[in-house]
């Protein structure tokens, strides 16, 4: 695994959707419930990797009692279309979960979805292998305007707001 010892940033150059999804093992003594749920995700990921046109850029996963997968998508439309796609692995997995677990409490599932618009997110990686959005969308060296967080956020767009906040007087302490 290559570690980049220079300052890098994501090559993403547009809006990105960040989708967090996971499960929580509530009843560890029922492995037939949580294992079936856990094994559904690798099937979905394989299908998404075979069909990049579905819009998932990449993902990172973390395991424990509560699992977390962070995935990056081209757009909200791509993510929502995938969720309803009859030929993909998601709908069968969702139906199987509802039939076998439903609301019995054995396994918890969760997700959160965020739309990150260009200019509202920035990334930096130093002494890191490709990771996160940089791994999903590719990396480029953080040089020129990309050397600082303000620059990566789009300095021209944010310059007026930064200048305005810099000229404000600090709030006086309560007496």
Index terms:
6 strands; alpha+beta; two-stranded antiparallel sheet; disordered C terminus; 175 residues; four-stranded antiparallel beta sheet; 36% helix; single chain
Q: What is the element layout, followed by pairings?
A:
Layout: E1 8-10, E2 16-25, H1 31-50, E3 56-62, E4 68-73, H2 76-84, H3 90-100, E5 107-116, H4 132-137, E6 139-141, H5 149-152, H6 155-167
Antiparallel strand pairs: 1-6, 2-4, 2-5, 3-4
Helix pairs in contact: 1-3
What do you see in this structure?
Helix content is 36%, strand content 22%. Helix 1 (31-50) runs antiparallel to helix 3. The protein has 6 helices and 6 strands, in the order ββαββααβαβαα. The protein is of the alpha+beta class and 175 residues long. A hairpin with a 5-residue loop joins strand 3 and strand 4. The termini are far apart. The strands form 2 sheets. The chain has a 4-stranded antiparallel sheet with strand order 3-4-2-5.
Tell me briefly what this model is.
The protein is α+β, with helices and mostly antiparallel strands and 175 residues long. It has 6 helices and 6 strands; from the N terminus they run E-E-H-E-E-H-H-E-H-E-H-H.
Uncertain ranges? 157-175
Major sheet: 4 strands, antiparallel
Q: Any idea what the shape is?
A: elongated
Strand content: 15-25%
Number of helices: 6
N-end to C-end Cα span: 57 Å
Mean pLDDT: 89
Helix-strand sequence: EEHEEHHEHEHH
Spatial strand sequence of the major β-sheet: 3-4-2-5
Portion of residues in helices?
25-40%
- Structural class, from secondary structure content? alpha+beta
Find the count of extended strands (DSSP E, 2+ residues): 6
Spatial extent as radius of gyration: 20 Å
